[in-house]
Q: What sequence folds into this?
């Protein structure tokens, strides 16, 4: 069982109780972060026109509340249509730094059919923090959000 299965259940329960979109996003961010290492901070960036807008987060604050498509790891994920698992953020040319503690980053797209609604962006203080299992676990939450939002 994926570590995030209880999170998916909590999101469905919140949705049944008419939780608004921002509440579902906040819940997802908080509960993923609460799993502990490697999850240090979790951000929900949603597509608004040609920008990603930070709608909810849990963890460290970021100055990057709006990210143009194609910029940074986050913008690259949307522009290429591919999730990003960056083992060493220092090695990425267009990385948008929020702080000096973050060593690795995982971006998982929230997709409904062919449409990209947004993404879950997870920072880790651990180098190469995210395995395929972590990717699958975060993807389960992103896939649930795609249906519920
Ligand atoms: N590092 C991201 C920017 C978002 S912050 O990590 C919260 C990027 O390069 O797109």
A:
């Amino acid at each position: 069982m994926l570590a995030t299965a209880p999170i998916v259940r909590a999101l469905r329960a919140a949705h049944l109780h008419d939780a608004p979109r921002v509440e579902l996003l906040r819940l997802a961010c908080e509960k993923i972060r609460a799993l502990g290492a490697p999850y240090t901070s979790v951000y929900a960036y949603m597509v608004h026109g040609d920008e990603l807008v930070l709608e909810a987060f849990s963890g460290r604050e970021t100055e990057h509340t709006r990210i143009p498509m194609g910029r940074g790891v986050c913008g690259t994920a949307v522009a290429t249509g591919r999730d990003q698992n960056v083992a060493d953020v220092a090695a990425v040319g267009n990385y948008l730094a929020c702080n000096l503690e973050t060593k690795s980053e995982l971006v998982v797209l929230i997709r409904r059919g062919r449409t990209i609604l947004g993404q879950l962006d997870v920072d880790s203080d651990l180098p190469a923090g995210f395995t395929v299992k972590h990717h699958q676990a975060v993807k389960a939450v992103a896939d649930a959000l795609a249906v519920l939002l």
Summary: The CA atoms of residues 85 and 132 lie 9 Å apart. The pocket of methionine sulfoxide is lined by residues 43, 62, 64, 67, 72-74, 95-96, 98, 105, 121, 123 (CB under 6 Å).
